Amino acid sequence: MSASQPVSPPAPAAPPAPPTALAPAAPPVLAEVVRSGFVEGRHRGALVVLGADGAVELALGDVTAPVFPRSSNKPLQAAAVLRAGLDLAGERLALAAASHSGETFHRTLVRTMLADFGLDAGLLRCPADLPLDAEERDLYLASGESADPVTMNCSGKHTAMLAACVLRGWPLEDYLDPGHPLQRLVHRTVEDAAGEPVAAVGTDGCGAPLMAISLVGLARAFQNVAGAEPGTPERRVADAMRAHPEYVAGTRRADTWLMREVPGALSKMGAEAVQAVALPDGRALAFKIEDGATRALGPVLARALTLLGVDGPVVGRIGRAPLLGGGAEVGEIRAAF
């Protein structure tokens, strides 16, 4: 460059980049997958325990963010059909709150209820499915049966919803529409029990509207259902579930074992690894495994029950989740809190 050429001023410095927002903290690990002494996987999630007074006694992760409770909402949906005036009790009411295993006694009662209310199975809007229970599924298929809406685990709930619509003169064809009078009643029932507004409405696996609430709200809802005044719709549902837990789940299911062996407990799992429990002393818990792995439900539930002072063989039975290698047990899924 010659001495006569002007020197360009330096380019202005670029403005500083705005500060990067902190990434949200990862949910805590609730369960570990241990194979041959090596931790090969982890399941994260959130869990809350409420005292009998409703205060939060334990919170792991964000327990105030909304989640879809999936089938843990079913006791509230069953309470709504009672609020609509439907007269159900005993095994029938338990089945209305069920994610049943598709065992013979479940299918038989669904068909009986449909006939008694003058309904045809073709009116069910839940999808055709096979039994939820693996052993029952093998027997079902071996007998030559195929997927059917009656066999779907939500068929008891759908039958009760249709029956309530018949009673009230509400349309049957669109009974799953969120704007249908029955589903608006379900919406209010969920909000009343949870003590908070529904954060979002989606569609459950069975096609029914699904209301999102927080884990705190879900645990509170179970407290309010289990401890409701005798004779109220909520208490009638709780009493039926506790008296007939095999109709709520099945003969080989954790909800059945817990309600059968811990008198006064109210328990209901949901898809995508959701669980809610109310205990007879008024305390309650709710949790969700973030990745939806239902294999972690038992170990996490058993650990939570142990922290709450619930003991006995049922806790070990619920919590047992062995891993196999070459047909032999080489590890387990275990709680990590």
Strand-residue proportion: 15-25%
Relative helix content: 25-40%
Please work out how many helical segments DSSP would assign.
12
Mean pLDDT: 95
Overall structural class, as computed from helix and strand content, comes to: alpha+beta
Q: Shape, please?
A: globular
Stretches with pLDDT under 50, minimum 5 residues: none
Give the radius of gyration: 24 Å
Order of helices and strands: EEEEHHHHHHEEHHHHEEEHHEE
Terminal-residue CA separation: 71 Å
Total E-strand runs:
11
Biggest sheet architecture: 8 strands, antiparallel
Quick take:
This protein has 337 residues and is an alpha+beta fold. It has helices spanning 74-83, 90-96, 104-116, 134-142, 155-168, 181-194, 215-226, 233-243, 245-248, 254-261, 297-307, 313-319; strands at 29-35, 38-50, 56-60, 66-67, 200-203, 209-214, 266-270, 274-278, 284-289, 322-325, 328-335.
Any chance you could write out the topology, listing elements then pairs?
Layout: E1 29-35, E2 38-50, E3 56-60, E4 66-67, H1 74-83, H2 90-96, H3 104-116, H4 134-142, H5 155-168, H6 181-194, E5 200-203, E6 209-214, H7 215-226, H8 233-243, H9 245-248, H10 254-261, E7 266-270, E8 274-278, E9 284-289, H11 297-307, H12 313-319, E10 322-325, E11 328-335
Antiparallel strand pairs: 1-2, 1-11, 2-3, 2-9, 4-6, 5-6, 7-8, 8-9, 10-11
Helix pairs in contact: 1-5, 1-6, 1-8, 2-5, 2-8, 3-5, 6-7, 10-12, 11-12
